[in-house]
């Protein structure tokens, strides 16, 4: 299962990605979390200290030079098979797996923004990101969850060509649903019809009748435990509401086809 998470700014993309990755690993799946957001928040949301966050790959000039400008030539299709293992950090699971389940590995790759990665930009750092993403998504049997930057423009071919599902995260507000509708349409245009919507901070009501909103959706209520914690801590795992979140995530994972 290889999923991208997209939606308007601040709606909860990173939180949902983090919850799903942890659920999958606790249930025995190996997971790659790909932070494709310039804000680099997926590690923190998963409980990593800011000091332990790896340098974003996009800022690794040494690597870009070594792989893309190999031997003085421009190689936009570099061999990157060794890089995901070398560059990823292991993230501990939030709690013990269920009895009888061997937990999976949860690993984080911090890209630093996939902007234009598939948009015909010949920028060398983007070529490296694109090659690494393609490698992780296509050549691995593990689950891959890509947390995208806010908006729709980042839902470029570079990311979506490789994933097999799109999770559209939204808040219960018209503007957020409008972005969700744009995201859904762009996903469909790129051939991605395995889509689900997560309405975060949901308190009731029916979603507006906008075109291209994913038909299937689930909801997450405002989480008092998270509201209380987030002033001091970016970690969204191990909340008082974690059992409730697990049930929602299990439904979402099944819907996406695992
Ligand atoms: N259901 C919820 N209840 C309360 N707080 C929430 C809930 N979901 C997310 N949050 C909080 O809302 C804030 C934004 O969430 P998050 O970072 O996951 O959004 P995002 O869509 O990834 O944002 P960005 O567009 O900036 O990347 C965080 O502080 C998070 O802790
Ligand atoms: Mg985010």
UniProtKB/TrEMBL annotation:
GO terms for biological process: negative regulation of cell division. InterPro entries: CobQ/CobB/MinD/ParA_Nub-bd_dom, P-loop_NTPase, ParA/MinD_ATPase. The keyword Kinase does not apply. It comes from Maridesulfovibrio ferrireducens. Pfam families: CbiA (PF01656). GO terms for cellular component: cytoplasmic side of plasma membrane; cytosol. It comes from the Bacteria. Keywords: ATP-binding, Nucleotide-binding. One of its GO terms (molecular function) is ATP hydrolysis activity. The lineage of its organism: Bacteria, Pseudomonadati, Thermodesulfobacteriota, Desulfovibrionia, Desulfovibrionales. This is CO dehydrogenase maturation factor.
